[in-house]
Amino acid sequence: MDNSETPTTPELPDSTEQRIFDAAHQVFVQKGLDGAKMQEIADHAGINKALLHYYFRTKEKLFEMVAKAVINRAFPAVQQLIEADMPLEQKIDRFVDFYIDLISRNPFVPLFIIGEINKHPDQFFEKIIPAAPPRPERFFRQVEEAVAEGRIRPISPRHLLVNVLSMCVFPIVARPMLRIVMGMSSQELNQFLKERKEEVKAFIFAALRP
Amino acid sequence: MDNSETPTTPELPDSTEQRIFDAAHQVFVQKGLDGAKMQEIADHAGINKALLHYYFRTKEKLFEMVAKAVINRAFPAVQQLIEADMPLEQKIDRFVDFYIDLISRNPFVPLFIIGEINKHPDQFFEKIIPAAPPRPERFFRQVEEAVAEGRIRPISPRHLLVNVLSMCVFPIVARPMLRIVMGMSSQELNQFLKERKEEVKAFIFAALRP
DNA sequence: GAAAAATTTAACCGGATGGTTAAACCCGTG
DNA sequence: CACGGGTTTAACCATCCGGTTAAATTTTTC
Q1: Residues B25 and B113 reside in one and the same domain
Q2: ipTM of the complex
Q3: How many domains are there within chain B?
Q4: B82 lies in which domain range?
């Protein structure tokens, strides 16, 4: 199993508070708001319910903090790379590597974000939305330039970005479904996902040939 | 908003039982086992809790029936197309059209399947798994033949299938996330998803050029 | 119109769960 | 040692929720 990265809130690295928060992070991300139980979080942090409420007043508040931490870690990483000062080809190359690694380390995060937005749209769009969403305009311009120069086949920049994202994220997120659809063992799937980076890059660059 | 297709169990089309089942289908698929409340299902079906239990004994049983219906409708449709007797290029073409339509009509279904498997793996793999999972071997053979004939660039059949699936499914499932990442309004996103079929097909066939 | 089935009403039970409380305990620091 | 914050224990409350029940009411069917 992959370990989930536990985010660093501005706290002492190994304080009880941090351990509780990490436990909450893990449980919430895997089970969602409804599926997560406070007792389970306490158990997972190696403490008891009383202390849990001593540090974090309510489930709602704790969830809100976790959810904020999740998206405030997920989006800026993408943004940084997508805004970087780097040739398009290199940017795509690094993006695929980076993103597949990122999602592999946090396979439940995309599902968590999408699922919770679906289940509790109000709270999410009120409380959790990031202050600064990614701005892919620069990437779009780079694609348009490359098209204009004839370096790549004409293509909609938006669709290209979504294609890249899809091929990186979906197989990891949909892992249990792929096992069924493709009839692969867990072993085979691990091997398959390891090959992905190179396969995805090859596919993208093949599709971009003029 | 897209309407979700409500599956036809072998029941009278407009019976109370069917109305309840449809309501349960909708609520379960959107909110999952934990998030769905029996009262909500009853409300949604326009009846009361007592009658709900009169028709369907327990939440578990009802959920099991709904989950079975969901996957027994989702997978055979794919399988049929993927096993069809049809040239590879045409098969891909139709598959993209068909699959984007299917997911657009049931945007919550993939998330539901993946999420529930993650949250309750035991029950799912015991009770719900389809008797006959898709067998993509034929598709794989077609790809290998096309490669051997030089009709398409060399490519791993498995990765090709996953790429196609990813680009079809992910954007629809991740719609709320895309809104944030790409900074698009709901209107723009609708337009974007309409363009998808042609863009995805163009992308795939471009990537397959020898 | 009577019998049977469908549906409502309303109350209730029991367990799980979020949350509280008070007392005791542990443990490091001044 | 005494003080105080961290921590445990254990009991407890309120609420929600799945599920049941019994009777009344409506609708269907014969």
Answers
A1: no
A2: 0.90
A3: 2
A4: 71-208
Residue B123 lies in a domain: yes
B115 to A32: CB separation less than 8 angstroms, yes or no: yes
Kindly determine whether residue B32 and residue A115, on different chains, have CB atoms separated by under 8 Å.
yes
Look over chain B and give the mean of its residue pLDDT values, rounded to a whole number: 91
Domain identity same for A104 and A202: yes
Q: Would residue A28 count as lying in a domain?
A: yes
Average pLDDT over residues B158-175: 97
Quick: pLDDT tens for A100-134.
999 999 999 999 999 999 999 888 888 887 667 88
Residue B164 contacts residue B96 (beta carbons within 8 Å): yes
Residue A9 has pLDDT above 50, yes or no: no
My answer on whether A95 and A173 are in the same domain is yes
Lowest mean pLDDT, pick from A1-15, A131-145, B25-39, B102-116: A1-15
Same structural domain, A96 and A47: no
How far apart (Å, rounded) are the C-alpha atoms in residues A78 and A83? 9
Q: How far is A51 from chain B (nearest CA, A)?
A: 26
Query: Do B92 and B165 sit in the same domain of this protein?
Result: yes
Contact A87, A93 (CB under 8 A): no
pLDDT of amino acid B193: 94
Provide the positions of strand D that have an atom within 7 A of a protein CB: 6-11, 16-22
Rounded to the nearest 5°, which phi and psi values hold at B88? -55, -50
pLDDT mean over B7-13: 45
Torsional class of B156: left (φ above 0), alpha (ψ -120 to 50), beta (otherwise): beta
Q: Are the beta carbons of B26 and B8 closer than 8 angstroms? A: no
A108 shares a domain with A53: no
Interface of B with A in 106-125 (CB under 8 A): 108, 110-111, 113-115, 117-119, 121
Rg of the Cα atoms in chain B: 20
Residue B3 lies in a domain: no
